[in-house]
Design a protein that fits this description.
single chain, 339 residues, three-stranded mixed beta sheet, two-stranded antiparallel sheet, extended
């Protein structure tokens, strides 16, 4: 236990004496703004390392930055919010309208080893998109190491999605029926050609290359749409349907329209054709602007390098490909050992 000197300030005398620093108490803010102490507290070693010069009467709040530094990883803030949400749920009518003590006891219930193993297997085998913080929080109450391992694996996989271009390709697939292996391959092929030319060295350059590939594909889409709209006939209603629709509109005009003095016009064929041409030109300009931005970004980096100490820099794409090659080599070794 560290010892600090506490000075008693006084106008007449200022003697000093040594006394033990009390254990820091983690508190939450109550409804009236006053600190509400909790049972959780950092260890003495953590407190001594992080807050060596802290005053003896310091109050550390549970959602403070100091606590985030004392904990082993930053998920504790999110997990604490999950705990508060659980307490609020158990106190609500849907959660059983429990008292505060009962809700806190229910929310702080730790899962056993068997349940933790089931959650770990679930989050490691299910789709990453359906894994939420509630699963990680339950796993963390039993084993913080496992929860942190899962979280790091998710971040690494998200990084791979960004580095390989699949994250940028998903914007063209907002619904399942739009997913196509050939379309994804075409996008990644164009993106890889841009990567081979520019050899990006960081996330900013990769993001600019992704924007270039997206703008190029949208330019192709709207160019194709402009050609279709200017050279092909639009799909029209049959004459019988138009006649029936006109009759129904006139017969129900009093019921189907609110009070007003003009009708909202529909886009004409010429306007739709012009729209497609404008959109194709817009994404063409976006592509060219992104190329200039990437060139300017690399030029600014080159100027900074001339002023800095020369260092060896490797392309992040090259690093990713090296890791992919290592993974393929390991996979090949496993396949040979099984055969």
């Amino acid at each position: 236990m560290s010892r600090v000197k506490v000075a008693k300030s006084s106008l007449l005398e200022a003697p000093t004496e040594e006394q033990e620093k009390p254990q820091l108490a983690l508190v939450e803010t109550a409804d009236d703004g006053t600190p509400a102490p909790t049972d959780e507290a950092p260890s003495a070693e953590e407190t001594e390392e992080a807050l060596e010069a802290a005053p003896a009467d310091l109050v550390v709040y549970i959602d403070s930055l100091g606590v985030s530094l004392l904990d082993r990883f930053s998920l504790v803030r999110i997990f604490r919010e999950e705990w508060r949400n659980s307490v609020s749920f158990y106190r609500s009518e849907k959660g059983g309208s429990l008292t505060l003590n009962e809700a806190v006891e229910r929310a702080t219930h730790k899962v056993d080893e068997q349940r933790a193993a089931e959650i770990f297997e679930q989050v490691m085998t299910q789709s990453s998109e359906v894994t939420d913080f509630d699963d990680l929080h339950k796993l963390w109450t039993h084993s913080p190491e496992d929860a942190e391992f899962v979280w790091r694996q998710m971040k690494q996989e998200a990084t791979r999605e960004f580095m390989t271009g699949h994250l940028a390709a998903t914007v063209f697939e907002p619904v399942d029926w739009m997913r196509s292996a050939w379309k994804r391959a075409k996008f990644l092929g164009v993106r890889d050609s841009f990567l081979d030319e520019y050899q990006p060295e960081g996330g900013v350059e990769i993001a600019l290359v992704d924007t270039m590939a997206q703008a190029y594909f949208l330019q192709l889409h709207w160019t194709e749409e402009a050609v279709r709209r200017t050279n092909a006939d639009p799909r029209r209603h049959s004459y019988e349907y138009q006649k029936w629709e006109r009759y129904k509109r006139e017969a129900a005009k009093a019921q189907m329209w609110d009070a007003g003095f003009w009708e909202i016009p529909y886009a004409s064929e010429v306007q739709l054709q012009e729209q497609a041409v404008r959109m194709a030109d817009h994404f063409s300009r976006l592509f060219q602007r992104t190329v200039r931005q990437l060139d300017n970004h690399r030029l600014a980096k080159a100027k900074l390098r001339r002023l800095a100490v020369p260092t060896v820099r490797r392309s992040v794409v090259g690093q990713e490909r090296e890791q992919l090659k290592e993974w393929h080599d390991k996979l090949e070794q496993v396949r040979k050992s099984k055969s």
